[in-house]
């Protein structure tokens, strides 16, 4: 091939440029040699994952349960391993991460934010219906399938997700997730369930319409915890003047400290912010 960067993955795929990096993985573009079809291949080093291989097994079992079931959830097409690595081949999302779009726009126009949140919420309902909690919803794990403005948003990265049995809906006790998006009950270790994803969805909605996330830099564990306890406000006013009361109400229903009182994905899908489209939005000056 004359290209030192191109490697053969078990002779079926050729990997190319790096699409992204996460905590445990490098994701590369890959071409399936016989069909020419392009994928995103998550390459996970077994050495780096030592002792945590079960995270990858969980990711694979979760993905095989939900793949192809919802238009806003990435599909896993193939899985294989070599002595050193594990490889997961996904639909290729060429439109980058949501976080990049927020950064380049500053913030989203409210109707566009609502359309996006509606799609994410529908996908969250779907994964919750399948008995899965994602636990790491954030704009870095939300990808666009194409570079177009109206591309589909896809929930990716099920590496921290859990399958929960019906009778143990609030049974997970461990701290995980990403600072800024973690629900209070995760910090208190009082057990958590699907509602942690709704908290993260609230932070994402907040971030989309304002351009920042409601968390201050925390130096201590106590500060981190305090930050997560729903101490947020729709201030400074200059960031919120164009956001409707309906939009703020939607965020308030996600960022409820008591997980029992927090709205579910089903309830949020009936919220006026997601169903009445343009009606509530304050026009840009
Ligand atoms: P980690 O568990 O290490 O965070 P992710 O699954 O989030 O790994 O992947 C890391 C990054 O790789 C993502 O944030 C994204 O930029 C890129 N990526 C992951 N999956 C895809 C995909 N299907 N298409 C394109 N890029 C992807
Ligand atoms: Mg990730």
From TrEMBL:
Coiled coil: none annotated. Keywords: ATP-binding, Kinase, Nucleotide-binding, Transferase. Residues 13-274 form the Protein kinase domain. ATP binds at residue 42. Transmembrane segments: none annotated. One of its GO terms (molecular function) is protein kinase activity. It comes from the Eukaryota. This is Kinase-like domain-containing protein. The chain holds residues 1 to 285 of 520 of the full protein.
